[in-house]
Amino acid sequence: MNRITNTILWAVLLVLLCASLGLFMTSDFKPAGILLSVFWLLLAFLMYSSKKLKGFTYTIMILVAVTVSMTFPEIFTKWGSFELKNLIVPLLQIITFGVGSTMRISDFRDVVKMPRSVLIGVACQYTIMPLVGFVIAKSFGFPPEIAAGVILVGCSPSGLASNVMAYISKANLALSVTITSIATLLAPLFTPLYMKLLAGTLVPVSFTAMFWDVTKILIIPIIVGMLFQYLIRNKVKSLDSIMSKVSMVGIAFIIVVITAAGRDHLMVVGIVLIIAMFLHMTIGFFLGYSVARMFRMPERDCRAIALEVGMQNGGLASGIAASMGKIATLGLAAAVNGPLMNTVFSVISSFWAKKTPKD
Q1: Which of 141, 210, 217, 337 could be joined to 314 by an S-S link, Cβ 3.0–4.6 Å?
Q2: Coil, strand or helix: which one is 327?
Q3: Whole-model pTM over 0.85
Q4: 182, 146 in Cβ contact below 8 A?
Q5: What is the greatest pairwise CA distance in the chain?
Q6: At 203, phi and psi to the nearest 5?
Q7: Domains of the chain (ranges plus CATH)?
Q8: How far apart are CA 92 and CA 355, in angstroms?
Q9: Would you say 229 and 104 are in contact if contact means Cβ atoms under 8 Å apart?
């Protein structure tokens, strides 16, 4: 793409953004949403054409889908008499199966090799994020179910995305994978326990019901995935590529369905919720890094722990919200967290990628 064409496209982007914001100011939401969708699409094209920005294309495409679902929510709530939110838990189980199919028993041997680092990482995960989520939820004065959703994201373990960011960031990838694995295995205990303690006054929380929800969404699919990998994975060489694409589409679909279901609530608290979730992940990130530094851990370990603490498994939070029948309120924080988290930590990882640890 030559410089003149590139300049024209960026100018068109600016016009589209200004026009959509102007229409939003006049409460003409549908035309504004259409223009904003075109803005995101053009931005995604420009980023895909750039070697430096290509990695952000997927996140921008999610923003396209989210904008369309905000503009035409009826498309993403029901198809005939079938409610699309009923697909959230099965999709999450397929995605988690894919995660399990990439895991091996050897991943857990690193616990023996570096127990101190793993213990610090998991402890930070299950102390910093739930408490920061609770403080933010209370400080922003959200309605009870939306506030409980913020806490729910904080009570969830880290996800596979943190491992990807650890790899890009030149962090200790083995430590990152191990913390994710241990935190995930502990989720059936800690997620419902923290929700009962911190959000029990906001929404009804059944420890046993949530224990089962986490188990069926995370633990069972992971075990099945690991067994599949052990038995026949070598015979299906394209599995990683297939599951990667399925996961990307599945995550986008889940975010879109939650956005459409909670559209009316998002119109009221959307901007404030984005600020709250940004503070949640960045405070967790800096506290995780600071704690690791306080224990005089190597830079690669500090980076891994910071990413593990800051990045939450929003998919699990979405699945729990769907199982509780509160996807339009309890699930909103997780829907906002997904694209925001990918954007923020892609920038951080790109910055760290240029700075090789001196350990």
Answers
A1: 337
A2: coil
A3: no
A4: no
A5: 61
A6: -140, 155
A7: 1-78 (no CATH), 81-353 (1.20.1530.20)
A8: 35
A9: yes
